[in-house]
Amino acid sequence: METETGRRSEPRREPPGGHARLAELCRRLTDPSLALGGRGLRLVDTITSALRTGTPPHELDDVFDELEEELLAAGHSAGLGSYRTTPTPPPPGYQRLPVAGPGHPPLHVLACPRGHCGRVEAPPGDDAAPHPGCRVFDQPLRTVPLR
Questions:
Q1: Rounded to whole angstroms, what are the CA distances from 23 to 74, 79, 103, 128, 147?
Q2: Which among 7, 40, 45, 119 is most buried, taking Cβ atoms within 10 Å?
Q3: Per-residue DSSP letters for 72-137?
Q4: How many other CB atoms sit within 10 Å of the CB of residue 56?
Q5: Residue 70 pLDDT
């Protein structure tokens, strides 16, 4: 695609850290108290269906805008922004440092299965517990080693 200057423009790429509103949608879909009306549910379905077929998240910004309006109308004051009402989980009581004790176990986090958003979670404390899932792509979060 050429611009007015005659140079070829680069295709739009995801911002570093992924699509922020997709990450927040993914987090909110795990919240059982999230109440959306019929239109909101249809918008979520439109977004998830398009993403599962390979549509880049930035091409769905208009649908994300509509969903954000629905969330705001339903009383979710942050819409799809994580900066207002999504509380940070309180830190658990005293715990041993992960590197304390014999050896240094590898540390890892759980992240978006396709790398489209910046969602990152700590793994469950029980190694046998299943990984939390991404309800956008209907896949478990992937393990990312920390260096």
A1: 20, 12, 34, 25, 23
A2: 119
A3: HHTT-TTTT-TTSSSPPPPPPS----TT-SSS-PPPEEEE-TTS-S--EEPPPSSTTSPPPEETTT
A4: 14
A5: 86
Alpha carbon 4 to its chain's center: 36
Report yes or no: 28 and 40 within 8 Å, Cβ to Cβ: no
pLDDT of residue 8: 52
Q: What is the pLDDT of residues 53-110, one digit of tens each?
A: 999 998 999 999 999 888 888 777 777 775 544 455 555 565 555 555 555 567 788 8
Q: Which residue has the tokens 């190694």?
A: 127
